[in-house]
Write a structure and sequence with these properties.
The protein is mostly helical and 178 residues long. 61% of the residues lie in helices and 2% in strands. Helix 1 runs parallel beside helix 4 (116-142) and helix 2 runs antiparallel to helix 3 (82-111).
């Protein structure tokens, strides 16, 4: 479902000298505050990760638009039909909303960190829903061409697969709605 290329890992320190006796522990942050630190870092990832998927929809719209101008039906290009323009324009609107909301929320990390708990949940619920929904509608628009894995529209299938982790990467959307 798009997770093949994701490299999950930890943290690596090179050439770091740690000095402590055998009975001491090395702490990152304040003692007893690990859960609070993790939850604060989740606010950051819940805001930033969905915003990173916006480029997938942008590329999908470009491919679908090119397809619409090249595909001929009844002697006209597909883009001349109102239903095709509706699909493309609603996908563009979803892209702009997702981009603006992601950008606004990421700026809030700097200017209003005290409200990021609200932004984080909202971004994690709304942005993936917009991106995945728009990509699914574009796939319907491409019809059987979206199944191609090579050729001019072969990239679309990969984009459609790669946008799906936006809904569950780090934490799923339903968990944010609780």
């Amino acid at each position: 479902v798009g997770m093949r290329g994701v490299q999950l890992g930890g943290i690596r320190f090179d050439n770091v000298k740690l000095t402590c006796s055998e009975n001491q522990q090395i702490l990152m942050g304040e003692a007893g505050k690990a859960l609070e630190t993790a939850i604060r870092s989740f606010q950051v990832t819940r805001i930033l990760l969905p915003g990173m998927f916006v480029g997938i929809l942008d590329s999908g719209i470009r491919l679908a638009t090119r397809f619409s101008f090249q595909r001929k039906l009844y002697g006209q290009c597909l883009a001349s039909f109102p239903s095709a323009r509706q699909i493309l324009s609603s996908a563009l609107l979803d892209l702009l909303i997702a981009d603006c909301f992601s950008r606004l929320s990421s700026r809030a990390l700097h200017f209003h960190p005290e409200f990021c708990c609200l932004y984080a949940l909202s971004v994690k619920i709304i942005v993936p829903k917009l991106l995945i929904g728009a990509m699914n509608r574009l796939a319907d628009h491409l019809g059987a061409n979206f199944y191609q894995t090579d050729g001019e529209y072969g990239l679309f299938q990969k984009l459609l697969r790669d946008v799906k982790p936006a809904g569950f990467a780090h934490i799923g959307r339903p968990a944010c709605e609780l």
